[in-house]
Amino acid sequence: MTRVFRHDPVDFRSLPPAIRLLMIANIVGFLIALVVPDMHNLFGLVPQQVLFHRWIWQPITYLFLHGNLWHLFFNLFALWMFGMPVEAQWGQRDFLKYYFLCGLGAAAAHLALAPHSAIPVIGASGSVYGLLVAFALLYPDAVVYLYFLIPIKAAHMALLFGAIEFFAGATGSTPGVARFAHLGGMLTGYLYIRWWWVAKVQLKALWRRASRAEPEEEPAPRPIPRRAAKPKAAAPANDMAEVDRILDKILSDGLESLTDEERGIMHKYSERNKLS
After folding, report:
1. Choosing a second label site near 178 at 20 to 30 A (CA), which of 28, 58, 70, 71?
2. Is 216 among the domain residues?
3. Are residues 167 and 265 in the same domain?
């Protein structure tokens, strides 16, 4: 099944609620840091302060601070680009939970590797790299234009960026960038989706099967006269439930696990609802 993504010109009012909230918070954090001199030391991620002085707010607050306008712009651009389809797929609550979980994973990686550092780490890059992983797992064949020029599949882009971060961190070629924090965000996102998310999907499937095996006794519904039946203008609820089940199966077992019948269902759904 081919998915086509199109981003129209940014209309702030039409952004999904979680992305809009995160953008506002990042912009406000950046502006406050311009006028508060010690903002980065107080609310950035300083391993020495977190581990030895229990400044436990820093693994969250560092996500809303940025070093300069370009740093802020590229993180917000990636949040918009990869976050839009992910939030549309998961919903606001699961999206925010995943975003902050990846940020905490990035912070944990940096704390583990540089526990005595007194240099603040700032920026939402750990969470953004986690969003790249989520997008690549949900839509591996979606084409992204790397640096606005080079077409590349999302799955290959995630692997490429992961390799770049690893080798740059291992060689120390960019000492001012917390490369392993980025990798921590990516790894956290991958493990969350491939283990916890898949386990949750399997538990839901078991619950559905158990519910079907032991149905609750309910009064029989009144038969609806044939003439009163509505024409099939939209997808019935049971069709949407089947589409959701197939999407869960793709996420847990991959696209190749689908049967011909399931592929046919998704093809019909794709034709009826063009994803923009």
Report:
1. 28
2. no
3. no
* Domain identity same for 190 and 256: no
| CA end-to-end span of the chain | 15
Residue 27 has pLDDT above 90, yes or no: yes
Question: Do 30 and 84 reside in the same domain of the chain?
Answer: yes
| pTM of structure | 0.71
In a domain, 208, yes or no: no
Q: Which two tokens stand for residue 53?
A: 């002085």
Task: Please report, as a single letter, which amino acid is at residue 101.
Answer: L
Q: Does residue 217 belong to any structural domain of this protein?
A: no
The predicted model gives 207-224 an average pLDDT of 60
Give the residue among 193, 90, 198 at the shortest CA–CA distance from 136.
193
SS3 content of the chain, % helix, strand, coil (to 5): 70, 5, 30
**Domain assignment present for 202:** no
Which residues fall within 8 angstroms of residue 191, CB to CB, at 6 or more apart?
A: none
- Residue labelled with tokens 């953008």: 23
Q: Which residues of 93-103 are buried (b: 16+ CB within 10 A; e: fewer)?
A: eebbebbbbbb
Q: Cα separation of 234 and 239, whole Å?
A: 10
Contacts of 136 (CB under 8 A, 6+ apart): 154, 155, 157, 158
Rounded average pLDDT over 260-265: 77
Mean pLDDT (whole number) for 103-121: 95
3-state SS class at 217: coil
